[in-house]
Amino acid sequence: MDRILVSGAGGFIGSHLVKRLKAEGNWVRGVDLKYPPFRKTQADDFVIGDLRDPRICTKVTDQPFDEVYQLAADMGGAGFVFSGENDADIMHNSALINLNMIEASYKAGVKKIFYSSSACIYPEYNQRDPDNPRCSEDSVYPAAPDSEYGWEKLFSEHLYLAFMRNYGINVRLARFHNIFGPEGSWNDGREKAPAAFCRKVAETPDGGEIEMWGDGFQTRSFLYIDECLEGVRRLMKSDFIGPVNIGSEEMVSINKLAEIIMDIAGKKLSIKHIPGPLGVRGRNSDNRLIEEKLGWKPTAPLVEGLKETYHWIEKVVAADKKQEAKRN
Q1: Distance (Å, rounded) from C-alpha 4 to C-alpha 168?
Q2: SS (H, E, C) the chain
Q3: Which CATH number fits domain 3-180+221-246: 3.30.70.20, 3.10.100.10, 3.40.50.720, 3.20.20.80?
Q4: Which member of 122, 149, 224, 310 is catalytic?
Q5: What is the per-residue pLDDT across 10-40, written as a single tens digit (0 to 9) for each?
Q6: Is 149 a catalytic residue?
Q7: What is the pLDDT of residues 170-228, one digit of tens each?
Q8: Would you list the domain boundaries of the chain?
């Protein structure tokens, strides 16, 4: 039984990771500003605390954990990251968390630490063609992320690698590409495209209209949470440091994403294209390195993960409507 710390354990990926780690038989401590919002945490111990405070980081790393997973960050979907209104908080809060957690982990004698970076670090100039984005791990420089979120992630990658070089702490780095699934943000302004469109489709009667930012020809790939966790665990068990992409190579336009969700719901809706924050024109995971180093890459079809996500959001929307009807 390994003793493991998950920071950001109240969030979407963190809460799913805790569940997986417990299923594998580990002892798990979680830490976050809040408990998971959609189900009770499965962590053996859960600390409510602000990791921007170095005293909290010291408190939760009170033993030489076998593994630490540093997932905590101030983040969200395009509406949160690309509006420009949250740039200072994103950089300040996430940088503080990482500075505190890597130092506390090193001082506590943590054996291995995982850091979740992001595909947002890749240069905007390599992602202007929606049909041919370049996101191989070695394409990061010259650096030109499309957001302050991406710049902070790139800084923090260097931070973890510097601690590894200078202090010998064992580090693993992965760049996530649009992770989605049930029990994530879906209506709080931080939701990503799959959850946002699942919500819009679930809330809109057949024959109605939903809104979409941009022309819908921008492209992305989306990775279901279970495959994300499989990649993370394989990386942690390997001798490969990273950074490495953990994402799907099944690239779709945002128009196509919405159409798949409509098909799952059995609805025919029209799309109204409106101005809004978009990010890069195209992005897709390049999985050559992960297949080479880990002998594995994500392969599950996008539609399968969207089915799980849509049906979960559909139930949550129905429950919300029922509660609102009772109040009225």
Answers
A1: 19
A2: CCEEEEECCCCHHHHHHHHHHHHCCCEEEEEECCCCCCCCCCCCEEEECCCCCHHHHHHHCCCCCCEEEECCCCCCCHHHHCCCCCHHHHHHHHHHHHHHHHHHHHHHCCCEEEEEEEHHHCCHHHCCCCCCCCCCHHHCCCCCCCCHHHHHHHHHHHHHHHHHHHHCCEEEEEEECCEECCCCCCCCCCCCHHHHHHHHHHHCCCCCEEEEECCCCCEECCEEHHHHHHHHHHHHHCCCCCCEEECCCCCEEHHHHHHHHHHHHCCCCEEEEECCCCCCCECCCCCHHHHHHHCCCCCCCHHHHHHHHHHHHHHHHHHHHHHHHHHC
A3: 3.40.50.720
A4: 149
A5: 999 999 999 999 999 999 999 999 999 999 9
A6: yes
A7: 999 999 999 999 999 998 888 999 999 999 999 999 999 999 999 999 999 999 999 99
A8: 3-180+221-246
Q: Which two tokens stand for residue 58?
A: 């010291």
| Rounded Cα–Cα distance for residues 238 and 133 (Å) | 28
Using the structure block, give the residue that is written with the tokens 């994103």: 90
